[in-house]
Amino acid sequence: MLTFSRFPLRRLLFGITLILVALLDPLGLASSTDDASSRWLNRLMASWYADDGQRQVVVVLIDDDYLKRHDASWPLPYSEQSKLFKRLLAYKPGAVFIDLLYSHDHSREVPGQPPRMESQVLANVFERYRQQGIPLVVANSGANRDTYRAVNTLPRLAQASTPGLVDWSGFGNQYPLAVASEIGPLETPAMALYRQYCRQHACAQLPADAQSAARLPAMTVQWGVHRSPLQAQVSDLGDCNVPGLLDQLLQAVFWKLGNSAQSNCAYSLTLSAQDLEVTAPEDQALIRKLLQGKLVLVGARIAGTGDVTLSPLHGKLPGVYLHAMALDNLIDWGLDYYRATPSLADLGLPANWAVDVLDIVELLLLGVIAYLKGALDAPLLTPSMGDRQLRVQLKPLTAWAMVLAMLTGLSAFLWFNDFTPANVLGLLLLSLTLFSARLQALSENKHQSRLDFSPQGPHR
Known about the structure:
Blueprint: H1 9-24, H2 29-46, E1 57-63, H3 64-69, H4 78-90, E2 95-98, H5 117-131, E3 136-140, H6 155-158, E4 162-165, E5 178-181, E6 184-187, H7 189-200, H8 210-214, H9 245-253, E7 269-272, H10 281-291, E8 295-301, E9 308-311, E10 315-318, H11 320-333, H12 357-377, H13 396-416, H14 424-452
Parallel strand pairs: 1-7, 1-8, 2-3, 2-8, 3-4
Antiparallel strand pairs: 5-6, 9-10
């Protein structure tokens, strides 16, 4: 049995402080280490990320080179967009998401033609997708155009497409499947395209509609790191860098030393909009092989635009890649995607009980760490002849090994049950802080013992 002195008042106050920090999260310290733990584990598991989704998802980027080639400005004129989407339609994709907001009609006035003609031509192209049975999802803000200063997809374009919600709040770093917007519940692009994927492939049961999808927990998007093997057929990969596992782990911990451990090539198979313009028969056959029947997401990588997302393995990427990676997660795992652990309110307790269940588990771990520290700080008692109790002094390395084993076990349990990890880094750093004095004392004692028994030691 472990024996130690009673907790003094200062230790009780220390424990209360830890509880308040964990629950109230002042200055966002706990949230920061929580996010860092999630990124760290994503880096750890990225090398083993499945490629089922990667074989189905293709990103097409409109970039600055494309604008220069066509002597165009941004936003890309509707006439140029019409040509682009007609070329894409010719390759028979399975479904298309356009990550462009058509909130204002910027058709150019053409002499001798009625105004707004360009947007109508684009709407006609969208209509051809529907006539050929190719689902077309267009980015939507979810705002009601009739409200003050609200914007949304132009009606003539919305009528020939399905909305994909790209603007939401209140989910932190999570990716929702659907959200109750001002114009009703709308599915996000990943969920809308996943429905189309499931029409051609065997999938587990899907939510009946957007309202049902909105009740499902949001996704914690996991990123893959190894680029598609097909990427080399359409682009030069000489500058691509895929760091090794050790480099990624070191970068996750020592992130201030730079971003050398980030991959500079996206995980999803990526084509430039210029690739759709090839004219050689063999090149067209290659593009057709890459696009036909695939889930295609069209986005932009234009200097000066703010549509970017942050990947823990790639740094800043065009925002369309977040939707592509969320779709990739759904194809790989279905509705068993990774998510945050539920809060007490989710388990039926009052709605203002927003404390996460994992926070409670972490508090219990903090209690165990405090208990072990108390056992280390307690003076060793020499048993008397009449004392039949066995008293054992806990060693610092043993105590820290117990903490590591508990953290590893908890993280493995959460990971294999599709939940985001515990605050591994925060708890690990705290345990090191609490045990550092005893670990240092243990090291000094061993060093002194070697000096005492050395040939030049004091015993001579």
